[in-house]
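The protein record passed on for reference:
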Amino acid sequence: MKQSKMLIPTLKEAPKGAEALSHKLMLRAGYIKQVSAGMYAYLPLAYRVISKIENIVRKEMNGIDANETLMPAVLPAKLWEESGRLETYGPELFKLKNRHDTDFILGPTHEETFTSLIRDSIKSYKKLPLILYQIQPKYRDENRPRYGLLRGREFIMEDGYSFSINDTDLDKIYNNMENAYRSIFNQIGLSYRTIIGDGGAMGGSDSIEFSAPAAVGEDTIVYSDDSDYAANLEMAKSMLEPGQSHPELQDITKVSTPNIKNISDVAKLFDTDKENVIKSVLFMIDSKPVLVMVRGNDEINDVKVKNYFDGSQLSLANEEQIKEYMGTNINYVGPFNLKDDIIVLADNNIKNMHNVYVGSNEDGNYFANVNPNRDFENVSYNDLRTVKEGEISPDGSGVLKFTRGIEIAHIFKLGTRYSKALGANVLDENGRQKPVVMGSYGIGISRLLTAVAEQQSDDNGLIWPKNIAPFDIHLIPVNVKKDDQVKVSNEIEKGLLDNGYEVLTDDRKERAGVKFADSDLIGIPIRITVGKKATDGIVEIKIRKTGETIEVKKEEVVNTVQILFKDLK
């Protein structure tokens, strides 16, 4: 391919507003172009990368007997009404109407669509298990699209769905899908972790996230420094350290505490640390009041609270709700004299606290010398806190470390969440109607460009792994006005093409410095420069990743490239 015939609008400087390294480089290298906030055109170089990623995905999906299909992007809203997600998904859902005033949405994911397909097409367990997938643009109306392709309103995704008659088959497919995803990312050349994930709006039980460590990542990966344990921050656990003391229990006492505004005020008033104060917070989960308690130096993990109740909506109670259910203001909430309809939930770390301080549920008063095992009634305990760096890993091996990561894929065991809602039933081996058991699997195809660019780039530009690079070789005749350079370039180009390599030849009438700068920016794995020594039949080969250069005779170029490519990742 001649570079003069391609649309590669390179820039010397990144446009204003580009913050992430990957965003800046892909804009400068002419891979993407913003059309509107959160929506990008994939220019020829980017689309070549995407196509190669998609081909790797297709190969691995074929290997586990998954069927590729393609669903509409515009979906009838009534399907999402059936599943209950039309109202609960949130403001990120694009909603629209057609000329007949019928409600539609732009698909952010396709559980409902595929489930309805199975409902209308499969009637017997004999047709199961079945795996379907597609590669398609998705749409989410992000409030703050940012970092280029990392968080956009339109993005390309591979989403797959499995349908089986029982959990045993689901487990097999889930494991096969995990292995297929690992193979995909290994082939791409991406550094990643598999971590315990949260199902979020998808619902379901077991969930694994694939996360690519990167400074720009919006997720926090929690991992052990001495084992394979890893989870996202919302799901991470730590090992409880046994208490070191058994103090004499003191009598509970009510203390006047006027003008208290936060836990720090309480700790200061009683001349103690925040870890000796219990923080009590009222939530509304599916319109029901839930009082949650953690130590004063801990943060309540909203996701863990929501997952405990398997609820679809969780929010902090407002001032009116706190007054209605607790009879006090937010600064004095506590687990005493509660109405019968209030559920009380406490973090495990609270169970063995001694002689601590808790809101009395009366304006202006706190209780001192509270001992949860003695003084609390009708309290359920669970892991409800957000872990901290340096705590013991839950498997007892090593301590927890934090790093930033980009979520690149996610797999879920959905169970019968959607099949029950949409009536996707089949006859089992006993002739009885049974809801199909489902799994959901997704890879952020366009997001992978950001992940790779964050991990594999330098001050000069992008460095694409060989399996997904837009071209294998960047061939640069330094001066296209020199007949000998053009002749040697043509000979080398033909030899490489004949041996199956993809070659981008920079035939532009540009200065050498411009060509080399653009080459580094574009990031093709190997560059071959045909310059002054062309008259002697000698060219320079440079490895983009290492910067290593060697001179070879033109007749040795193909063999040299073959050797170099074997060592590239």
In short: The mean pLDDT is 94. The chain has three domains: 17-236+401-454, 253-382, 471-567. The longest strand covers residues 400-415.
